[in-house]
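<purpose> Linking amino acid order to shape
<body> The protein record starts here
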Amino acid sequence: MAPENTSKTILIAEDSSVILSLTRKILEQQKYKIVLAKNGGEVIRLLEANPVDGVLMDINIPVKDGMECTREIRKHADSRINQLPIIAITGNANNYTMEQFREAGITEYLPKPLDFDALVRAVRQYVG
């Protein structure tokens, strides 16, 4: 049997194609595999269909926002899914308190404009 690929997979839920392609490029350079969700309606389905090690969650995504998606992930019956580290990305963090993020189940949050060094550090810290 071939040795198991040790690279981790990150689901990115983000509707901005610019941020998506930058984030993807940066994480792929760090040897992460990427699964993309263009809206909140796809997140749970993609998590159920793919072994994922962490989630980058834009708070302002269409269909279901990041807070709603995060709550859904935390309530999921599968512990492989409900225990995932969720790093929120938001351009208007002022709309939420850290308390609200924690309550929803967000592990960590990064403000936009995204500091990509901070992004890589957060992903390494929580996903490995």
Summary: The chain has six helices and five strands.
